[in-house]
Every structure is written in C-alpha cells, then in structure tokens.
Amino acid sequence: LVLELEGPASLLRQTERYGTRLAKLLPLVVGAERWRVSARARTRRGPVLFELSSGGAPPLPEPRPPEAVEFDSGLEREFYRSFLALGSGWEVLREPEPLVVGNSVLIPDFAFEKGGCRVYMEVVGFWTPSYLRRKLERLRALRDVVMIVAVDEEGACAHGFAELPHTVITFRRKIPIDRVYRLLKALEPPSPAASPSAPARAPPPEALKLLEGVEEEPLQRVLERLSSLGLSEEECYSAIAAAGLIVEWRGLDPGKAVVKRAPGRSGSGRSAQEPGG
User: Fold this and answer.
1) Which of 53, 175, 224, 249 could make a disulfide contact with 36, Cβ separation 3.0–4.6 Å?
2) Is pLDDT at 12 greater than 90 in this prediction?
3) CA dihedral of residues 95, 98, 99, 105 (deg, nearest 10)
4) Which Pfam families does this one have (predicted)?
5) 126 in a structural domain
C-alpha cells in the first residue's frame, strides 16, 4: 500500500501548513509491522529527501496531543468557537483520526462525540476542479460512518455532492450551527434522567458480565439482552458505557447502529494501558 499525501495549497506553492496533519498520520504508519516513509523537505540549505523505515528507525517517542487547535480557514475557526459556546453537551474535535477510504485516507474537519455516539463533519469549499473531484470520490466511497458534509454554495462547488451517501447541507458565508445541532440532536442516545434525591445506580454485575465478550454487535440485539435482565433503556446505555463500549451510529436508522469496543479498552471495561488494582 502506497499513500501520496498532498493538499490544495501545495498545488499552488510550497507550503508548511500541513505539518499538523502529517504528524497525525505518522503514528498510524509507524504502528504497522513494516513501513517506510519518504518525504521531500525544504530546509535553509535547499530541498532534501527524508527517508525512514521500520528496518532502521531509532526508538520513536509516544505521540503527543497538539497543544493548540489549528484551522484551515476563518470559517472553520468561527464554527468551532460558536459551537463550543452553544453548550450542546457534544464534544467537538478538530481533525480527528484519519478514516481509511480504499487506498487513501480522509481526515474529517470535525468530529462530534456524546454518550458514545460519534459523528464526523467535512467542510467543502472551493479549491480546484481536480481537488473537488478527489474529495467527491473519497466521500462517495466512505461507508460505515455517520458523516455530515457542509458545502459552500458560493464556492461554486455544490454540484455532485447532493448524491453522496451522507447528510449534505449547504451554506453561504457561514456554516449553519442550528442545522448541524438539529442533526446531532436526532442522533443523541437517551440520557439517564437526573435525580437529585438518589444517585445513579451502578450497572449490575450480571450486565457487565454479559457485555464482556462484546466486540461488535447490533445495538438492538445488545439492548434486548440487557433488557431481559430488567434494565431500563437508560440503564442499558449506562451499562454499555461502563463496560468500555461505545455506540456507533451509521445513519439515522437505529437498526444500523452497533455496539463496539472503544479503542484502547479491554473486555473488562478498563483501559488497556491502565494497571489493575
């Protein structure tokens, strides 16, 4: 598998704006059993070729999370800040993990998380016809994720996006936060009702035992099994979260949602890196 990485700005000039995105991809590359990286870099002494492979790489440090959120445009920065100020209860992530699409990858602009539900969003503006064509091809081939595609009408690039197998919204000058929020609201799992007089009841041991072997199963099947133990719908979702599982929504139809093991979580619900005790 060979991946060539480029961005729209690199078509016009040499640029340094993609350093953060490259840094997010490298941990995935070096995590493979065998790998090789080749990059053309610009230095003060001129262009150089950088090469590194699994056969001769020195010990690599653990990747660190970015210290600051970076944006490709003021449009995305304004949306991010406005969404945070909304207080919706959804966590918004800038440029989450890359999504594999065939022989290429797509790094969405945003991801939203709440109660184990994860929704991605890609913002499409005007670049070049070839860039938009590749973007369309990747989004058309992307499956098994919930994706919102926000398309700028004024960028003259809305043609062709309406047929995508994702939720497509259009905008002018500003991403419509209210429309995005309504879409997210429709995907929210039921939240346990707050009771000021009584603390939330911990999931019963038999519920956690039932969920130990779950790696990926349809949500409806898991809810039926938990309900057979006498749990309410809210208690079922609480048990799912306590067992280290997440609900992955694959569209607005609950019948397509699955319960799967959260990354880095063991079958006991404890983080794989967390020591016992």
Assistant:
1) 53
2) no
3) 110
4) DUF790 (PF05626)
5) yes
